[in-house]
Task: structure prediction
Amino acid sequence: MTTGLVAHKHMAGSVISILKTLFNSGIKRVLMPATGGIVFLLFWSIAAQNIDTSLGKFPGPAAVIQQFGVLYQEHVSESDKEAAFFVRQQQRNEQRIAQDPNYVAKIRAYTGKNTFPQQIVTSLVTVLSGFLLAVVIAIPLGIAIGLSESLNMAISPIVQLFKPVSPLAWLPLVTMVVSAVYVTPDPWVEKAFLTSMITVTLCCLWPMVINTSIGVAAIDSDLVNVSRVLQLSALKHVQKIVLPASIPMMFTGMRLSLGIAWMVLIAAEMLAQNPGLGKFIWDEYQNGSSESLSRIMASVLVIGFIGYLLDRAMLQLQRMFSWDKSSEIR
Amino acid sequence: MKCFKTMKFTVIATITSIGICVSPVQGETLGFPEKDELKFGFIKLTDMAPLAIAYEKGYFEDEGLYVTIEAQANWKVLLDGVIDGRLDGAHMLAGQPLAATMGLGTKADIITPFSMDLNGNAITVSNDVWRQMKPNIAKQADGRPVHPIKADALKPVVDKYRAQGKAFNMGMVFPVSTHNYELRYWLAAGDIHPGFYAPHKGDNAGKIDAQALLSVTPPPQMPATMEAGTIVGYCVGEPWNQQAVFKGIGVPVITDYEIWRNNPEKVFGLTAQFAQKYPNTTIRLTRALIRAAMWLDQNDNANRPEAVKILAQSNYVGADFDVIANSMTGTFEYEKGDKRAVPDFNVFFRHNATYPYYSDAIWYLTQMRRWGQIPEQKSDDWYKTLAAKVYRPDIYTKAAQSLINNNLAHADDFPDFATEDGFKPPQTGFIDDIVYDGKQPNQYINKFAIGLKNDDKL
Result:
C-alpha cells in the first residue's frame, strides 16, 4: 500500500525518481529479504563456530544442509526396505497358504521406522484434524456467545479460565482419558494420534471462540437495524448479516489458533511420544550422537517453514471468504 | 547406501536359508501365531539389542510375526504402555514385572519368559567427584587406579558434602531398576547409606536416613543431567557411561560386572493375559529373541561390530558407533584413555543368560525388602511363589526345545531342562563377598550391615 502511494507521487518525475520507484517497489522487495537472510546466515555460522556443546560444535548452515541430504537418503533407503518387506510378506503368505489352506492372507502395514518426511506428514495430519475439530466446536459457540449477552456472561469466565492453560497440563489428563475411554480390539486410529489431536483441539479452541464472539458482538448497529427492518428470521440473520460481517475477526481467531495448534502439537508429540516431528526431535535429543544437533536444527527449520506455510494458507482462505476485498489483510 | 545394500542382502539371504529349515516343523509342534502384528517398546540402551537383532535379522518374520519396535520416553511410560495394551511387550527392568505383580506402583500381572542379558551397567561420577575420590584409590605399577573401585573411596567425599550441608545427589533410572539396587549395593558396601523407602507411609522417594540421595532420571538424559550439575553421579546402562567419557563430563568408576559378576539385567515383559490368550505368539516371540541372543554372542562376539552398526541407527539406540562399540565389543573405557578388557561386560546368551531363573527374581525381591519397598517381613515361600508367578521358564523351555527340534539350536547351549529347577547354585562374585542363595532369601537379607532385616519396619 505505502509503496504504491509513494510510487504515484513520483510518477511524473525524472529518470532518477523512476529508478528510485523501481528500487522501492520491485528490487527492494527482493533485496531486503535477501540481505536479511545473508546477514542471518553469517551470524548463524559465526555463532555456531563459537558454541561448543558436549556433542561437538553447534551445527552451522552447511551441516544442516548436509543433514537434509542425509534425511532424504534415509527416506529413500527405507523405501527400498519397505518394498523388500512386502515381497517377503507375500512369499510368507503363500508359504502359509500352502501349509494351511484355510488361512486368509492379509497384507500387514510396514513395520519399519518412520522417516523424516513421514513424520512431517503425520504431524500435519494431526494438527489439521485437531484444528478442524476445534473449528467445528468453536465457530458455532463463538457465534452463539456473540449474539447473546447473557450466554456471553455465562460462558466467558470459563473460556478465560481455560485459555491460558498450557498443552502440557492437559496432556496427562487427555492421555489417561483416551486410554480409559477409547478401548477397541481393532482401533481405527491410534491412541497416540487421538491424544495429540485432542490436546491440540483443547488448546486452539479458545482464541477462536473469543475472536468469533467479539466479531459477532461488534457488528455495526446499522447492519443489525437493516436486518430488523427486513424482519429477517434468526437463521437468515446469521447467514446474511452475522457471518459476512464477522468473518475478518473469525479468521483472525482461526489464524491465531492454527499457529497455537502447530506449536502445541510439537510439544505434545515430544512429551507423549506420539509420532511426528516432536518425537523426531526428542528421539534425536536422546540419541545424543554427533549428528543429533544438526538433525534437530534441520527439523526446527522445517517446523518454522511449515508454520509459515500454514499461516499463509489461512491468509489466502481469509481473502477468499472475506466480502470486503478492499480492506488490507496482513 | 552401499553398506545398507550389503546388509539388506545378508538379511534376505539369512531369511531364505532359515525359511527352509523352519517350515517343516511348524505344523507338528507349534501352531501359527494367534496375533501376528505386534508392537514392542524399548528404552534407548544397548541391551535392547536382542529386539533390534530379532527384527533386523528377520527372526520375528521367520515366526510369522510382524513386529514394530518403538522407543519409549522412560520406564514408566513403557510399563504403562504394556499394561494398557498400547504395547504388546517390552524390554523391561527385571524389577518391573515383579513390582507390578506385587502391586508396587501400578498393579498388573506382568510375566517374563525371557531374560535379555547379563551385566551391562556402570556407575559414573562427575569429574569433580572423581578428582576428590582419586587420592583414596590404590594405584597399579603403571599408575592407573586399581579396579574394582569400592565405594570406600567415595565415602570421604560424601562426608565432606554432608559436613558442608550440601546434598550428594545421584541418578538412577527407576525405583525398581537394577541400577537402583546396584548403586545401593555398591554404596552400602562402602558404608554409605542410600536411604530407605516406606511405601506404606506413602514415601516412595527412598531417601529416609540417606547419606547419598538417589533420584530418577531417564537413561538417555543422564549425561546431560550430570553436566547440568543436578546430580554428581549415576548408575545406568550403556552407552550412557561411555557417553560421559566421550563428552569429557565424568568418569565411570565401576561396572556392575564387578559389583555382582554376571548379574541378570533386563527382561522381556508382557502381560500374563497376553501369554494366556496368545500362547503360540508368546512361544514364537521367545524363539525369535533366543535366536537373536545366540547371534549376538556367536563365535566369541564375532557379530558384535555388525550389531553395533545396527544399534547406532537413529531409530534404535542412535548414539555414535564409537560410543556403543566401546562397551559392546568387550572393552570398557574408565578414565579417558584407560580402556580395559571386560569381555563379559555385555552377555546376551552364554552363561545361560536368557533363561529366566527364579533365583534372579528372588534377588531383586530381597533388595526390595532390604530397602523397604517391601515394608514387611515375608516368608521364604512368599518369595518363591511370587518369583514363579512372574518368571516363566516353562514358556522359555518350550521355545528352546522347539528350536532344538528344528536344529536351530543345540541342547548343550541351554540348561538341562529335565533337571533344571530354576535356582542357580549359591552365588559368589559380589563386591562385598556375601554369598547369595536364592533358596533362602530371608537368611540372605539378614547378612547385610545396612538394610532392613527380619521384621524391621519403618
